[in-house]
Amino acid sequence: MNRYATILRILALCLLNTNFTAVYAQAPSDSSDPFKATPTTPAVIQSNDFVGTDGSIEKLTERSLPSLVTITHSGRDGKVRGTGTGFIISADGLIATNLHVIGDGRPIQVELHDGSSYDVVAVHAWDRRADIAIIKINSKKKLQPLRMGDSDSIKQGQSIVAFGNPRGLQFSVVNGVISAIRKLEDDFTIEGGVPDFPMIQVAIPIEMGNSGGPIIDLEGKVLGIVTIKSLVTPNLGFATPVNILQSMIEKPNPVPMKSWLTIGKLDPNQWRPILGGDWKQHAGVITIDAYGSGFGGRTLCLSELPVPKTPYDVAVKVKLDDEGGAAGLAFASDGDEVHYGFYPSNGQLRLTRFEGPDIYSWKILKQVDSDAYHPGAWNHLRARISADKISCYVNGQLVIEVNDDRLRQGKVGLCRFRKPVAHFKSFLLGADLEEKPISKKLMQQLSQQINAYSKQGGDPRKTIAALATHVLPSKKLLSEKAAELETRALELRRLSQMIHASDIQQRILKILKQEEPQINLLELGLLIAKLEHRELDVEGYLLEFKRLAAAAQQTLSEEFSEREKVERLGKFLFQESGFHGSRGEYYHRSNSFLNEVLDDREGIPITLSVIYIELARMLDIPHVYGIPLPGHFVVGYRPKPSELQMFDTFEAGKAISQAEAADLVRGTTGQALDPRSLVPSSNRSIALRMLNNLINVEINGDDPTKALPYLDLLLAIEPKRAPERFERSRIRFQADNRDGAIADLQWMVDNKPAGVNIDMIRQLLERVQ
Asked: Please, which pLDDT band fits residue 196 given cuts at 50, 70 and 90?
């Protein structure tokens, strides 16, 4: 250990006069958790345990109830799908609640304590990770808001009161205590998922309908918002600290209701849902999470694509949240209740002919077990419809084949039965969708490479070079080999990840070889994110971005000047579509992944700027580019050399002058603004800056080795970047990759980059060797 520590200390001293500094701060340590309580479950304290003789709880309840509201959101059929709680935070109609209470893209209604009802006119702000939303109503009267407290001043054991609508019982009150403030472990058994920030643990019973309600102290100040409950005990719940809500009030991301209702909507030119349900689309994935109106909860979503003549194939990837459900392909549909269905059901594969509304008109043609089906994972379903035969495949393996020609005309699409949530992606329709088999010769060659590596290990670069020309079969073979050789599974998955990273590198390098105007910056950013999110559907996100651009186009009048179009684009993004700068988690890696920025509409200056720039490019709005201010990326618009207007995307697209930009740089870096920073940033430079952000996030995180894929990609783009190469050598050494560390140090000795003390590098190289 002493030798290891000595080498690390030398590594830290080797670079002189370099500019590789961490942009992101250190991740919070354990000391940021004010309390170290264990996850115990105190009994709920009854009101007479801490209420004085003046009846303070009764008076507190009397004062608070007029500020509470019941929130409902409706489904496609207009019926109420969910009920929760909210509370008034401004006299002019702003109301706080949970995001999951209001749903995505659905009409929202609010009922006040006096029984009056209002439709929500806007979603004033929302934060998906914090699960908080602020909604707006146009009240006919002045409303009574609750006062905001300070969640940073909470004390363990502090008495609290919580309000809500448990199980539909409007405006109920319960009292208890604050048990702790803690960041929950990933395996903690709760409903709603584990947040990645400290939550307020409360010893009160949490029921359905309590979500979105306030917890307040005995002075009537809001300390948090009830968000999730324990699945182990009814008297344990968690609330989001109110200071997160405060940041949303200060920096809203408003969306008018007419725009909110379009979020997650299926494109009617591509899909037509029937038999009810609540079909949504998000970044190329279609999700259904509600019962259909058909028998057994049946619902269909039919494609508007023209169906080829037989024989033809229809295929999709499907994943069930619960194997007790059933979801898959529908074909030969009459547009109502007659169709075939091929789908997994209770872990089996089933082919059914539906000829009416109920089980008396349904016939299961065949049902089988198959090892080819993987419960809980994405499974590829394909049905081949011939003139008199139907062949069904799962993950490339034939599982069902029947002679049946009763139904042949009609649409194809998706079907879902029963309650569990189902997800679909990569829907295809064509004359022949069969995955072409790999030749035996090629399969043998790939297997030999993999077997040799799995037995001998060593330098993986030769193996990567041999496999990288056949990425998909190589990844498949590597995964199979990993399952077969469990003792070497970790190493094989690592090699598979390296193949994946190598493929991403080659795709990005190919894009960067294009002329600057032809480079798709959005695609570059999505490919960078795909290093982490291996299943990311780049084409799906590009298609969704086109839909966003089409919506933006509708807001641009032909009479607008070029400058007016640029400004209107900012209004569309930040005032109407909800994009906003990250409020409480600036250093979270999600802010640097373009897919998550598009999903959550939350990011940091550079990722929000990329969306602004790419929308302008897609809409043929010229003279819009990125400006690489030190520490704070902004968007620039320069129609003439003498005219420059900058927009701060982190501050809702606010227009800033050069003097304000100088103040921004000085406040961020302590340095004066260099006029050279105002020149347009190339797409290549923007990609490198996004990579540097991710590198610094990971280096300052719990596991610096997670920075390696981004360092590898950056150095593949810019091999002569000495600071990053040195950083990679240090992390490689920490990861026990001594050969890799030596290779980087040897490169520095051989190439003698400026600003590096080569004598110290030589000494370090000798020690490592």
From this structure: low
